[in-house]
Amino acid sequence: QVHIVESGGGLVQPGGSLRLSCEASGLSLEEYAIGWFRQAPGKAREGVGCNSNYDGSTTYGDSAKGRFTISRDSAKNTVYLQMNSLKPEDTAVYYCRSWGSPAYWGQGTQVTVSS
After folding, report:
1. Beta carbons within 8 Å of 6's beta carbon, 6+ residues apart
2. CA-to-CA distance for 20 and 5, rounded, in angstroms?
3. 37 strand-pairing partners
4. Which H/E stretch holds residue 27?
5. Are strands 109-113 and 10-12 parallel, antiparallel or unpaired?
6. pLDDT tens-digit series, residues 50-107
7. What is the DSSP letter of 33?
8. pLDDT in tens, 13-57
9. Alpha carbon of 39 to those of 9, 30, 57, 59, 78: distances in Å?
10. Dihedral sign, CA of 47, 50, 6, 31?
11. Taking burial as the number of CB atoms within 10 A of a residue's CB, which of 27, 42, 58, 74 is the most buried?
């Protein structure tokens, strides 16, 4: 049985940083491209970034470019989303997803950026 769990969210002041984790059981994340998404209240889910398992390259959404970084720790079967220079508009529930058939999603972790 596959489980994906995001963690690391919380309340942070504007300009601060957070590192989100995406851990999996029953699934080897290094075999899949992994994407991070977010959904703010009343808004559609949007892509934050996607890391390829093939060549390690990462594509970021416009809102994440220059501020967010996706990395992996294969030994821990974990993918990270490092978020710096956070803004109030980054407030959302953040999800990770494995690309494949079927795709697996976690339950999300809340990030709130507020003073």
Report:
1. 20, 21, 22, 94, 95, 96, 106, 107, 108, 109
2. 10
3. 47, 95
4. none
5. parallel
6. 999 999 999 999 999 999 999 999 999 999 999 999 999 999 999 999 998 899 999 9
7. -
8. 999 999 999 999 999 999 999 999 999 999 999 999 999 999 999
9. 13, 25, 24, 18, 21
10. positive
11. 58
- Whether 14 contacts 86, CB under 8 Å: yes
DSSP state of 63: T
Amino acid code (one letter) for 30:
E
* HSE-up (13 A, CA, CB side) for residue 6: 27
User: What is each CA distance from 59 to 6, 48, 100, in whole angstroms?
Assistant: 20, 9, 17
